[in-house]
Amino acid sequence: MGALAEAYKHSLLDKQLIPLDYGSVRTLPESHIWLDQSDESPYVAHSTGPISPPVINLMDPDAPRLIIQACETWGVFQLTGHGIPTKLMEDVESEAEKLFGLPVDQKLKALRSPGGGAGYGLPHISPFFNKHMWHEGFTIMGSPIYHTRQLWPQAYQGFCETMVDYQNQLKALTEQLIRIIFKSLNINSEEVDWLKDSQGSSTALQLNSYPACPDPTRAMGLAPHTDTSLITILQSKTSGLQVFKEGAGWTLVQSIPGAVIVNVGDFLHILSNGVFTTVRHRVVVTHIQRFSAAHFYAPPGDVIVSPVMSKDFGEVPRYRSVSVKGYVETKGKHFEKALSLIKK
Ligand SMILES: C=C1C[C@]23C[C@@]1(O)CC[C@H]2[C@@]12CCC[C@@](C)(C(=O)O1)[C@H]2[C@@H]3C(=O)O
Ligand SMILES: O=C(O)CCC(=O)C(=O)O
Ligand SMILES: [Fe+2]
Q1: Which end of the chain is more exposed for a tag (fewer CB within 10 A), N or C?
Q2: What are the residue boundaries of the Fe2OG dioxygenase domain, all occurrences included (predicted)?
């Protein structure tokens, strides 16, 4: 888990936000109406768009080139041929469905403590917005046993085994993608200790639920943000994720059965001197409940991330060097302004 456990710790200290009992709500409460924030309204420019992020097959010999191109142009792509077993992906979704289907009093037993990273609750970024999101989440950092036992004192084992297996497989896939990307950055993966022995990296698995919404065009599933990661890998059977693309606006990413969605996060943005773009994204809701699982990967907390310098990535650094821990702290305090605060 590591440094990511510290994300948004400070912003949560004074507020413990509790998700609604969504099943009992028939009309959208005022506290959840986002329409008045016109340019950020969930359905402004909501389209599948004439263009959408590329779909890349990892088995394609040309995959490395296509991945680099996607990191530059979109900061996001869909990946097939990734080797994560379909059955495991389905099990993650059905375990998430079981968890979020528990009665609200039961779920609240695993509520994240104020300033805590793991457990049940609203999105960590909630304190930065004056409206609530139509969302509930369960964050896993390291072993899921502690919080899962509070949900199912006897029957937590199946859930835990599925999530641990998934975390291990996603970590390995992320490291495979990092090696491809590092090659293009001229970084020798063999010389990167935390990648070589797969020790110390910070990871988190976030299960997201977007309950069936009585008034979807006025609600926000997950507000616009970029991920505090090097790379995030997301799975969801159902569409709902929108990414912001300069010139095209908010674009819906159509879910492809069996594919995962790979996002460039803030640390890869800094490392590539802004050439690979950390993608701003958000989630829209519908009358039908949607689940997703996002796996976040960052280097260990004490690693210093500095922009690489070269002909392709620029000879002048656009960002100051930051420690992973330091940047996570800045993001937790300043959220969307964090990247511009470390701009040179
Ligand atoms: C690893 C992390 C990234 C994250 C904060 C966290 O510590 C655990 C949850 C992650 C998540 C998931 C939903 C969206 C998001 C912005 C949030 O509120 O919590 C991300 C955080 C992030 O990427 O900054
Ligand atoms: O649910 C989704 O599609 C996106 C989730 C997300 O952005 C996140 O967990 O950071
Ligand atoms: Fe995200």
Answers
A1: C
A2: 201-299
Query: Tokens standing for 261?
Result: 């969605």
Cα 90 versus chain centre, distance:
19
What are phi and psi for residue 159, nearest 5 degrees?
A: -60, -50
The predicted model gives 258-266 an average pLDDT of: 98
Q: Residue 316 has what DSSP assignment? A: S
- Please list, in sequence order, all residues whose beta carbon lies within 8 angstroms of the beta carbon of residue 69, skipping any fewer than 6 positions away: 54
Using CB distances shorter than 6 Å, the residues near ligand 1 are 4, 7-8, 117, 123-125, 139, 204, 206, 222, 225, 227-229, 294, 296
pLDDT of 2: 78
Among protein residues, the one whose CA lies closest to atom 1 of ligand 2: 292
> Which two three-digit tokens encode residue 24?
């009992």
For 55-75, what is each residue's pLDDT tens digit? 999 999 999 999 999 999 999
Q: Give the residue numbers marked as catalytic.
A: 290
What pTM was computed for the model?
Answer: 0.96
Mean pLDDT of 207-218: 96
Residue 142, helix vs strand vs coil: coil
